[in-house]
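FORM 12-B: Structure-to-Sequence Request
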């Protein structure tokens, strides 16, 4: 199953101290990505705020996101490392009772995989899907919504990578499913930012959505608008509904663009991307308005 060559396996190491799973009490040693040495060669930043990496001649293709999520190889309980041991008793029971479900989920999507092996693209992708499944069962004080949003986004990215390598597998369908999960969860994040309900600020360290730069709450606003535009047809049942949805996303985006123009501390990259997206959504709204007038 391993995708990496023998040389590439040197990009990671196992932690010395064993980690005890709070769900099944099994021990494992978390794998960590080694830094430096030209292992990661940064490429362009995509419209989805994903940092692409060029292949290293010495180490081959490295997927840094694959090493983030902590997963118990036995019961497949998964989460961001900071949350791994912070569970309430009712969460432990719920996650323990769904172990068989997680095993079936990975079997359906990836056939036989083993988290005792070194991380590769398949295991990395599976770890995010498992984390989403587990965060469904976590308490609100863990801020599960933004974590599900980020995990959904990363799962979609990595499933797209898998599809480019193995198009004979239905990774494209799974990719589209997790993009839609990201849409729903980013929209919920905006509601939480306005009305409360979860300590979303406690999840600030993972908002990313990628690892090279954390765009934080600006990233939530931008990605909500980007994903709404990308999937507006699937999210709406009428032209009127699509128009309202995009208009709302544009309104949120205008706040990001507006504060960016007046703040020197706001990175110009996110401000410029927001301006371009704002204009793109405006054009779509004009087209939808024309359709609505023609139909009336």
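FORM 12-B RESPONSE
SEQUENCE OUT:
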């Amino acid at each position: 199953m391993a995708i990496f060559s023998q040389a590439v396996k040197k990009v990671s190491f196992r932690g010395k101290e064993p980690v005890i799973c709070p769900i099944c009490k099994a021990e494992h040693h978390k794998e960590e990505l080694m830094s430096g040495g030209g292992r990661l060669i940064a490429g362009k930043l995509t419209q989805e705020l994903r940092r692409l990496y060029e292949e290293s001649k010495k180490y081959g293709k490295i997927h840094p996101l694959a090493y983030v999520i902590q997963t118990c190889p036995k019961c497949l309980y998964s989460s961001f490392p900071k949350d791994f041991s912070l569970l309430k008793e009712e969460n432990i029971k719920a996650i323990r009772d769904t172990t068989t479900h997680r095993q079936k989920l990975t079997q359906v999507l990836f056939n036989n995989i083993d988290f005792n092996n070194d991380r590769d693209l398949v295991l990395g992708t599976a770890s995010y899907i498992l984390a989403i499944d587990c965060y469904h069962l976590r308490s609100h004080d863990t801020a599960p919504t933004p974590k599900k949003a980020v995990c959904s986004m990363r799962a979609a990215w990595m499933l797209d990578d898998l599809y480019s390598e193995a198009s004979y597998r239905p990774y494209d369908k799974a990719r589209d499913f997790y993009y839609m999960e990201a849409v729903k969860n980013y929209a919920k994040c905006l509601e939480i930012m306005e009305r409360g309900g979860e300590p979303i600020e406690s999840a600030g360290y993972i908002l990313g959505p990628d690892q090279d730069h954390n765009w934080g709450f600006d990233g939530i606003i931008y990605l909500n608008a980007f994903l709404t535009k990308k999937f507006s047809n699937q999210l709406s049942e009428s032209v009127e509904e699509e128009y309202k949805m995009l208009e709302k996303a544009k309104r949120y985006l205008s706040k990001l663009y507006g504060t960016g123009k007046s703040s020197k501390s706001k990175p110009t990259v996110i401000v410029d991307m927001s301006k371009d997206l704002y204009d793109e959504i405006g054009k779509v709204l004009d087209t939808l308005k024309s359709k609505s007038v023609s139909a009336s």
